[in-house]
Design brief:
CATH architecture of the largest domain: 2-Layer Sandwich
Radius of gyration: 37 Å
Number of strands: 4
Shape: elongated
Helix content: 40-55%
Number of helices: 5
Order of helices and strands: HEEEHHHHE
Largest sheet: 4 strands, antiparallel
Distance between the termini: 109 Å
CATH topology of the largest domain: Tetrahydropterin Synthase, Chain A
Length: 159
């Protein structure tokens, strides 16, 4: 009977909320720090360094030779579908006059090639890339290696 009886009205001691609040503050601080580190490029990437004193490189010594617009009847005459094609040739400046002189031959090669292409192939979304590379190769054969750098298609209308 030496034990002291506890009163029944006594409220049990509540646990402290300090660890919970401290955990939430620490969670928010670490989350914000992590976001800043990733966003600024300190982690998982490098932030682009500002370019100081660097000048853009000079453009290459090139010229453009415009080609006449070509209209080609595709398929059977009764189908009445046409292709309107225009382009420019990117050439080295030293060879510009040579390429201008060969323009009729270049147009002949383009005209002959485009007439041989099937109408269904022209409808393909990737057709222009293939046609451009094929025409460029044929133009480079006509003009000689090293004169024409690229073929820039400025108009490609199929109706």
């Amino acid at each position: 009977m030496a034990e002291a009886e506890m009163p029944q009205d006594a409220v049990p001691k509540k646990k402290s909320k300090l660890p919970l609040i401290l955990g939430l503050v620490l969670f928010v601080a670490l989350g914000g720090g992590g976001f800043y580190a990733v966003f600024s490029g300190l982690i998982l990437g490098h932030a682009p360094e500002p370019v100081v004193g660097e000048h853009a490189s000079d453009l290459p010594d090139i010229a453009f030779v415009p080609l006449e617009r070509v209209t080609i009847t595709l398929g059977e005459v009764s189908a009445n579908s046409h292709l309107r094609f225009a382009a420019q040739l990117e050439v080295n400046s030293a060879y510009q006059s040579d390429v201008v002189m060969l323009t009729p031959r270049i147009l002949d090669v383009i005209n002959g090639y485009l007439r041989a292409v099937e109408v269904q192939e022209l409808g393909d979304p990737n057709a222009l890339v293939r046609l451009r590379s094929q025409m460029l190769r044929r133009i480079q054969i006509v003009t000689g290696e090293g004169r024409v750098r690229d073929l820039l298609v400025t108009e490609f209308v199929l109706n």
